[in-house]
Amino acid sequence: MIAVVAILANVISVLTTWAHEKVTWPMRAARTVRLTLEQVRTGKRSVRDLAKTVAGTGGAIAVLVVLMFPIYWIFTASLSEGAGLMSTEGVFADPSTYNLDAYRWVLFESSFTDALLNSLIVVFVTVSVSMSVVIPGAYALSRHEFRGRKKILYGYVLFTQVGAGLSIATLIALYVLFVNFGLSNNLLVLGLFYAAGAIPFNTWLLKTFMDNIPVSYEEAAVIDGAGRWEVIREVILPLSKPGIAVVLVFTFLAGWNEFIVARTLLSPENYTLSVELYALATAGQYDTPWTQFSAFAILFAMPVALIYFFAQSYVESGLSFGGMEG
Amino acid sequence: MSTSLLDRVSAESQRLLPFDTRNLNLFGLLLVAPGAVLFLSFMLFPIAFLVYLSMTDATHAGTVIGGDTNFVGFDNYVDLFTDSQFWTSFGITWLFLAVSLVIKIVVGLGLAMLLTHARVVGKRYMRAIVIIPMGLPAIFIITVWRGMFSGARFGPFNELLATYNSAVTTLAGVVDQALFFVAVSVPEFLLVDMPVSWLSGRWSAFMAYVTTEVWLAYPFMVIIIVSALQDVPMELHDAAKVDGAGYLHRFVHVTLPAVKRPVMFASILTAATSFQQFLIPWIFNSGGPSRQNELLIVYGYREAIELNQYAYASAIMVTAIAFVGLFMWLAVRKGNLAEGVDSA
């Protein structure tokens, strides 16, 4: 858990050095290569030793290339010409025919923008509802002792780590109720559903973050005459800002990524992006519009991928938070 | 007088209450209540409702609320456990879990060892790349893999097979040229019959599920094993080397003990997720062909939403939930989830 805080603190410095690092890496790589060659020439390092390192690195790169094949394929597919992917020989499209037609189609002719609006409505509800219960909940679990506190924590941790797929089991029960109360095709209800599902993980995450804010800050504020609400407003909330930002990201993803509940509850005019993506992928068994599908998929996944890319250390700590590292 | 009466009443009621109200921090409880209530109303209440439904004869959504259902006790469970479709689904779920878990551990361990190896340069960047699947929405990954396994002639895997076929044919041609005195043709068993409909065969679809599940979940394994491996002091390896331990020996006696516990823990968690896998079979071919690959949750979902067998589906879901409960118990007993809570 200490690792979580350490990483959160690091993020600012990581972000500032990030750009510099990304820009200068070819130069650094070149310097390393030059130094190594120098060492080999002067006999400080044997050729055999160097060959082993080159082989090891080359092997690792080869493994990564194979592993990331689907990513590369979907990118080239989105750039290929018309249904070109399905009519040319070879796995990848001919680079000379690359174009952005599919992206134009997705943005201006497909249902992407309507679905985006639906997704944003759902995400807005999810984020605002879950934030408004997660922050007080995390504060109470971190700073107050009350009956049932441990039970709630246990329940949250267990659900987060083990029972995440249960939402589909409960979906069939809720579906009946929603249909009968006429709530099934309702973006706000869907957002609420996601918010409820996002509570355990995010409450736990924010609680562990708040646990690391020293109590002495609050004591100092109390000595200065601050009341209970002032302590929360002036001490706890400002110091938890990074943790709250992480929770914001995760609740956003909860609403953005989910598919099956949306697909079950919504009618076509209210489809969110994930459901539209599925519709495109399963349009026909043999005539899936691959280029259009790829472009749609990339535009759908891009915000998520960017968030993860920038907050990678958060994600690592967040997903292995069940006591794996401290 | 009145105050003392109040005091006495208060003291009396205090005594009757099962707990000491002075410990009851109402403020804290009030703050945590909205979240807990919201979560429970979308989780615990539906589960209770499922248990009730599973003991009725409800069929479609209308009968569930309309009130024209009868209480039938455990009839649905009896039907379920004598239904061969259930045992097909149950068996394939565990097989899916077991096969994908073994592959995940092997792949995770292999990658983690590669990405902590002293001979590999640029490990940090490689680790960032290797966990990319974690940063993508599940629906994106699964639809993309569905495309990879497309049964069309120009689907990526069929293209790879075509490449393989032509390579074999070319090779045979070369051999034929070289051995000019005999006519060499390609042996039939070396060529693949094209195109392969990956998702139409039971076991090829199953392997497609496993491949995708592994791709979804290996980053979690890699992260956990890498952090365990980094905690192994380099001196331990060096000492083993000095003692003349070979690579295999060092792997068994230095690496494995270090990662055993984290791998065990990660295995429980990822196995629980595999057990509840829904999206992969559903998006690939709806648990087909002919319902042979319906994982448990897919089976329950289809019975309810598509076949209008609500009571029956509820019995399936309750069974699945019971097994998830088992995983939770395992995670508490074998993992260190409980320590995390108790120390908090």
Which tags fit this structure?
heterodimer, A: 326 residues, mainly alpha, MetI-like fold, 3 domains, 15 helices, 0% strand, flat, disordered C terminus, B: 344 residues
What does this entry look like structurally?
The complex is a heterodimer of chains A (326) and B (344). Chain A has 326 residues and is an all-alpha fold. Chain A is flat and about 70 Å long. Chain A folds into three domains: 1-67, no CATH class; 69-99, no CATH class; 108-319, Orthogonal Bundle (MetI-like fold), CATH 1.10.3720.10. Chain A contains 15 helices and no strands. In chain A, helix 14 crosses helix 15. Chain B is mainly alpha-helical. Chain B has a domain at 54-151 and 197-335: MetI-like fold, CATH 1.10.3720.10. Chain B is built from 16 helices and no strands. Chain B has helices at 2-16, 26-41, 44-53, 61-66, 75-81, 84-114, 123-130, 138-148, 156-178, 202-230, 234-242, 247-275, 279-285, 296-306, 310-334, 337-342.
Q: What is the architecture of one domain in chain B at the second tier of CATH?
A: Orthogonal Bundle
CATH superfamily of one domain in chain B: MetI-like
CATH superfamily of the largest domain in chain A: MetI-like
Give the biggest sheet of chain A: none
Question: Could you give the distance between the termini of chain A?
Answer: 6 Å
Task: Give me the CATH fold name of one domain in chain B.
Answer: MetI-like fold
Summarize the helix and strand pattern of chain B as letters.
HHHHHHHHHHHHHHHH
Largest interface, by Cβ-Cβ below 8 angstroms: which chains and how many residues each?
Answer: A-B, 114 and 110 residues
**Principal-axes shape call of chain B:** flat
Runs of chain B in which pLDDT lies below 50 for 5 or more consecutive residues are 17-22
As a whole number of angstroms, the C-alpha radius of gyration of chain B is 28 Å
Pfam families (chain A): BPD_transp_1
InterPro entries (chain A): BP-dep_ABC_trans_perm, MetI-like, MetI-like_sf
Family (chain A): Belongs to the binding-protein-dependent transport system permease family. MalFG subfamily.
Membrane topology (chain A): Multi-pass membrane protein
